[in-house]
Amino acid sequence: MKHLSDLSRFGLFDAKAPRFTSYPPANWFNDGVDAQCVRIWQASAPKDAEISLYVHIPFCRRLCWFCACRTQGTRSDAPLAPYVARVLAEARAVRAQFVNGVKPRRLHLGGGTPTILSAALLDELLSGLNDIWGLDTLEEFSVEVDPTDVGPARLAMLAAHGLNRASLGIQDFDEQVQAAIGRIQSRDLTQGVVDNLRDLGVEALNFDLLYGLPFQTRKTLAATLDAALGMRPGRIALFGYAHVPWMSKRQVLIPGDALPSPKERLALFDQARLTLLGQGYVQIGIDHFALPHDTLARAFYDKGLRRSFQGYTDDRAPYLIGLGASAISTYPEGFAQNIPVTGQYARKIDASEPAIWRGYALTARDKLKADLVEQLMCYHAAALNEEQCADPELVASVERVAATFKGAVTWEGNHLTIARWAHPLVRLIAVQLVTPGDAPSGERTYSAAI
Ligand SMILES: C[S@@+](CC[C@H](N)C(=O)[O-])C[C@H]1O[C@@H](n2cnc3c(N)ncnc32)[C@H](O)[C@@H]1O
Ligand code: SF4
What is the signed CA dihedral for 267, 271, 276, 280, rounded to 10 degrees? Predict the structure, then answer.
């Protein structure tokens, strides 16, 4: 690869960096944001505010070794019904803080594995949310589907409640790779779930795939992509596998010596990227690909792409309300995260108390930086607005970045642009826009920059 030595010189293969699904990243959150502060944010939402709802289901039937998501295994169904009841109790309490008239635009069930809930429990959850929030204004209802833990009755129930987008966890179809990451899932089983969804009229599909897995080679990844592309999903998220065993203890089961080197990770991503572009997909940000008709591709072209805790999105709602253990909410004023441990979350809800754990109140300057980082993560380029150009500290950090990444970045007029070959550096460049000294030491919570 032509620019390998330049990418190496800029530290791509050694560094760790946040994925910037928010600015600041969640490890900056602090206890300066408490329940009282969040109540004020909720009460100040205008009456026609557009709201997105996120419900976190923190359970999985099995725990895949590679997974870094906040989740817990459960063999029995016993914890599921009480959890749904608590999410509804929280939803009721949160709704009471907002004025009448706010409009839910999106609902996303994530996890963990939302499809671990039986059809009856899904019905209870969705009917309950509808009673509390009034979901007839929804434009999108999406769910993370684990193809190995779902069935026709659960999918039919989701469709009956208006499901119109599904995200399927796949990761990789190669048998040796699957065995090494503790996630066995055949191509046929996945195809069956895809067919089922399409039969129910759920056409908008996303596949989660990973590069950088143990035993993955360019040949095996090409075969995985070939199989995935045969099912023609509108979107593919091709995440770099984050190997963080100090945070996600089950990853000690992953054979570290079978992991591709950082340079090989880049080669895997590049090869996959070219395949996807060749198949008519548009690259969105650092790790998403979408067919041109997909709403994400349209948002990308219309300059309406956003980055949120759910990754890349075309959701423009200023309020994202997270319900359930560990869920993060976004307000125009800042972020608030719920207590992550399910038992502690349960105790708070049972005591009729807010489940807020920590958060971050954005200063005016943070908002300018957040916009800059979001533009870079979405477009590998940013146009500074008047307010940003008038902020000497921000301009100084942009100039510093332009000097540090000379040759990879141009800074002309009010435009900061990353050269095409240097796109993999975007997370490192975004880190440099953060004033040194601002960030709590979070290196260990971050994953490889490529
Ligand atoms: C909540 S999970 C997916 C939903 C469902 N539980 C399933 O497994 O199909 C969300 C996605 O996060 C991604 N993910 C999990 N652990 C990861 C890691 N260590 N590095 C990168 N991506 C990861 C996977 O692609 C996974 O599909
Ligand atoms: S990948 Fe999905 S099913 Fe596997 S542990 Fe993570 S959240 Fe659970």
Answer: 120
| Nearest CA residue ID for atom 12, ligand 1 | 69
Best residue among 62, 69, 75 to mutate for probing ligand 2, ranked by most atoms within 8 Å of CB = 69
Structure tokens at 424: 């993999």
Nearest CA to ligand 1 atom 21: 241
Angle of helix 80-97 versus helix 35-43 axis, rounded to 10? 60
Helix (H, G, I), strand (E, B) or coil at 109: strand
Ligand 2 mutation target, pool 67, 190, 208, 239, most atoms within 8 A of CB = 67
Q: Which residues contact 6 (CB under 8 A, 6 or more apart)?
A: 407, 408, 421, 422
DSSP state for residue 30 in the 8-state scheme? B
| Mean per-residue pLDDT over the chain, rounded | 95
Provide the 8-state DSSP code for 176: H
For residue 205, what are the contacts with CB-CB under 8 A and spacing of at least 6?
Answer: 165, 166, 167, 168, 194, 197, 198, 231, 233, 234, 235
> Rounded to an integer, what distance in angstroms lies between the CA atom of residue 249 and that of residue 159?
36
Q: Determine the Cα–Cα distance for residues 135 and 128; give it in Å rounded to an integer.
A: 10
CA distance linking residue 150 with residue 153, whole number of Å: 8
Closest approach atom of ligand 1 to CA 208: 25
- On the question of pLDDT at 444 being above 80, the answer is no
pLDDT tens-digit series, residues 93-127 = 999 999 999 999 999 999 999 999 999 999 999 99
pLDDT at 162: 98
pTM: 0.96
Task: Cite the DSSP H helix spans in 231-341.
Answer: 262-278, 295-301
Determine the residue type at 418: I
Number of alpha helices (DSSP H) and beta strands (DSSP E) in the chain: 15, 21
Pair of tokens at residue 50: 């557009």
Beta-ladder partners of 406 = 409
User: What's the CA gap between 121 and 119, in Å, rounded?
Assistant: 6
Angle formed by the axes of helices 262-278 and 218-230, to 10°? Answer: 30
- The whole-number pLDDT of residue 445 equals 67
Is the torsion defined by CA of 102, 107, 108, 114 positive or negative? positive
Average pLDDT over residues 147-169: 98
Task: Indicate the residue type of 81.
Answer: A
pLDDT score at 447: 80
pLDDT 10s digits, 5-19: 999 999 999 888 889
pLDDT, tens digit, 9 for 90 and up, residues 341-375: 999 999 999 999 999 999 999 999 999 999 999 99
